[in-house]
Amino acid sequence: MSSATQVEQIAERVERLLVRYEELQRTNALLTQQVEVLTQERDSLRSRLSAARSRVDALLERLPEIKSAA
Q1: DSSP alpha helices (H): ranges in 1-70?
Q2: Could you tell me if residue 40 is left (phi over 0), alpha (psi between -120 and 50 degrees) or otherwise beta?
Q3: Pairing with 23, which of 9, 47, 58, 64 sits 20 to 30 Å away (CA)?
Q4: Which phi and psi (to 5°) does residue 49 adopt?
Q5: What does the alpha-carbon distance between residue 63 and residue 57 come to, in Å, rounded to a whole number?
Q6: Which UniProt keyword terms apply here (predicted)?
Q7: What does the pLDDT average to over 36-60?
């Protein structure tokens, strides 16, 4: 195997690695974006859950008043 052939093989491998690296960078960017979207969605759902709990707690506090008034 000549030195030129080895250099060509190494160059091809480096090119393939660079292409793969770019693909992984794009995939990582997409996944990072998805994580951000899901984090925002989670935070929104937590906020809505907290508000709903507060409303339920307020309704539960009113129940004894309703029973004692009847």
Answers
A1: 3-69
A2: alpha
A3: 9
A4: -65, -45
A5: 10
A6: Coiled coil
A7: 97
